[in-house]
Amino acid sequence: MSRSGFQDYTDKLYKVISAPGPNKDWESIRPLYHVNARLVRTGLNEDGSSFARVMSFDEYIDSAETILADVEFSEIEIKHEARIFGNVAQVASVYESTFKTGTEEIHGRGVNFFNLIYDGPTWLIMSIVWDNEREGLSLTGIGFEF
């Protein structure tokens, strides 16, 4: 697969997570993941300490469904970089997100770091680790200029 081929993967993932309400077709992207894949949400707790929540694909689905239950949510990719070495690949996917609730609309940016392996017939996602911009943490000035 070429470096640009991984953009098909990220396009599919963002399409699913951005689908309205309970209409997210998780099964359409399950084949992109290795059976032992891990998804890791990172960030800060209210007290300022760091956290990393490590999830299986199914745990991620449960978490996303809970977090997004009463929210209109979308993510779009705004920058994509891929590196391939033999049977491993790393993709950095910078995104913009929008959360809409009844009266509030929150815009943000973040980055998903994908690690993939080639198992012979296809590339599979082994892990996705992500974080969002926040006070004191910006994508600007660290090589993710837009």
Write structural notes for this entry.
- The structure is a single chain.
- The chain has 146 residues and is of the alpha+beta class.
- It has one domain: Nuclear Transport Factor 2, Chain: A (Roll), CATH 3.10.450.
- The protein is built from 2 helices and 6 strands.
- It has a 6-stranded mixed beta sheet.
- The protein is globular, with a radius of gyration of 15 Å.
- The chain starts with 5 loop residues before the first helix and ends in a 14-residue tail after the last strand.
- The model has no long low-confidence stretch (mean pLDDT 93).
**Total beta strands:** 6
Low-confidence stretches: none
Give me the secondary-structure category: alpha+beta
Strand proportion: over 45%
Q: Roughly how many Å apart are the termini?
A: 25 Å
What is the N-to-C order of secondary-structure elements (H for helix, E for strand)? HEEHEEEE
The chain-level mean pLDDT equals 93
| CATH fold-type name | Nuclear Transport Factor 2, Chain: A
